[in-house]
Amino acid sequence: MTRRILAMLALVALCGGVSPGGTRCAWGMEKVTFRHQDHSLQVEGKVLAEDRQGGVLLLGRDGRMWTIGADELLQRETTPEPFIPFSKEELGKRLLAELGPGFQLYSTKHYLICYNTSDAFARWTGAMFERLYRAFHTFWKRKRFQLHEPEFPLVALVFADRASFERYAREALGDAVKEVIGFYNQRTNRMVLVDLTGVAPQRRRYMTSREIRRLLSRPGAERTVATVIHEATHQIAYNTGLQRRFSDVPVWVSEGLAMYFEVPDLKSSRGWRGLGKVNPVRARGFLQYFPKRPPDSLVQLMKDDKRFRDPQQMHHAYDEAWAWYFFLMKTRPQQMVQYHQLLAQKPVLRWDTPQKRLEEFTGIFGPLPPLEKAFFRFLKSLR
Ligand SMILES: [Zn+2]
Question: Where is pLDDT greater, at 266 or 248?
């Protein structure tokens, strides 16, 4: 969450009780002109929230969110048209214009992939994302949580090499870009990743999808692929009504969910067998942390998101979030669906107090001590 968003805590959501997509009310469209990096920019979209000073949260027709402070806002103009997202064709044109020469488009049912690497890698990416998308939908459908189709085409930018990836991603990530191979950006709603094959560009041109699949199914590549799946899970969750962008979903839930899905299954071309299995890396991490863990570890994990922001605690927080989410999903699936339903309705830019968070959780799952005891018993099955 950026500083700018946190500075806009006073924003008032304009569309509170809406469908889980959060963006499906009958809105008029506005043309908003504002200052952006020393020039002025006009964006068509709908204003989701505004603060008392006149700052706004604007959702553009490409799915991008803009937080515009009152001091940056130059003009707001209502249009007679309703808000309609860009079509895939229109969005594709804009992406090509933005990214410049060397980029091409590859489109699948839900995704629009803009890439400057090999066609085969773009196809591999599209196929994997679609497979994940299907597995995700089926998973929630079986649990009777009805997701909706994405309102916007799901954009993925795939860069041929680290240099071009870092040039693009630096604006969003700063120096952290060096440690990242792919990420989902809540603000732009895009997946951004680098070609994972690591093969020289001359050879890459002749690679087939099959070779790529073989290369990335090797044990050494598994974590790399898991990272991309993890990030792509976030994108799907935020675009199908499970979560709403810029709303207060506890980090342990959104990360627990992404880690539940991240275990890759690259051998089969259709199914997704990794789903719902123990995530070996996270399980190992959590079991190592377990003896050192303070007694109020879960309360700290759930009441706010501080542990995820503290570099000293971050890794343990992720591992614990996986274990806790996994335990709850396996042993209390109905309550988990109920909890997700509650979180899906969270309004944009309103942050709950730690107490409210805990109360909402225990309101559905019951008091924490007995649940924690059951959790400890469950952990034995992970050893
Ligand atoms: Zn994540």
Answer: 248
For residue range 99-128, what is the model confidence (pLDDT) as tens digits? Answer: 999 999 999 999 999 999 999 999 999 999
Residue 156 half-sphere exposure, CB side, CA atoms within 13 Å?
A: 32
User: From ligand 1's centre to the CA of 296, what distance in Å?
Assistant: 23
Q: Which domains, ranges and CATH numbers included, belong to the chain?
A: 3-82 (2.30.30), 88-242 (3.40.30.160), 280-382 (no CATH)
- Say how many Å lie between the CA of residue 14 and the centre of ligand 1: 28
Helices of type H across 114-243: 119-142, 162-173, 201-204, 209-216, 222-239
- Give me the mean pLDDT over the 47-72 stretch: 95
Q: Taking the model in full, what pTM does it have?
A: 0.91
**Identity (one letter) of the amino acid at 36?**
H
For residue 338, count other CB atoms closer than 10 A to its CB: 15
What residues are neighbours of ligand 1 (ion), with CB under 5 Å? 255, 258
Give 45 Cα–ligand 1 centroid separation in angstroms.
27
Question: Six-digit token pair at 180?
Answer: 């990242």
Say how many Å lie between the CA of residue 254 and the centre of ligand 1: 7
Cα of 209 vs centre of ligand 1, distance in Å, is 27
Give the span between the Cα atoms of 12 and 9, in whole angstroms: 8
Confidence category of residue 272, pLDDT binned at 50, 70, 90: low
* Ligand 1 center–CA 229 separation, angstroms: 10
In the reported structure, the alpha carbon of residue 318 is separated from the centroid of ligand 1 by a whole-number distance in angstroms of 9
Residue type, 235: Q
The tokens describing 211, both together, are 């070779």
Report whether pLDDT(65) > 90. yes
| 33 C-alpha to ligand 1 centroid (Å) | 32
Contact 297, 360 (CB under 8 A): no
Q: What percent of the chain has pLDDT over 70?
A: 90
Instruction: State how far the Cα of 46 lies from the Cα of 61, in Å rounded to an integer.
Output: 8
CA of 252 to the centre of ligand 1 (A): 9
Residue type, 248: D
